[in-house]
Amino acid sequence: MTLCDGGFRRDEVLAVLYESEVKLTPRAFIKMIRDRFNLSGARAGKVLKQLVENRDLCYQYHFGTTYIEQSFLKPVQVSPHFILSPVFSSQPASLPGGVSIFLEQGISFGTGQHPTTRLCLNAIDWCGFNRKLFKTIRSEECADIGTGSGVLAIALCKSGFSHCTAYEIDPVSVHEAKKNVIHNGLENRVDIEGREMEEAPGRYGVICANLRFPTLKTLSGVISNSLVNGGIVILSGIRVWENPSLIDLFSHAGFDLIRQTDEKKWSCFVWLKPG
Question: Which of 43, 50, 100, 128 has its CA at a distance of 20 to 30 angstroms from the CA of residue 259?
Answer without folding.
Answer: 100
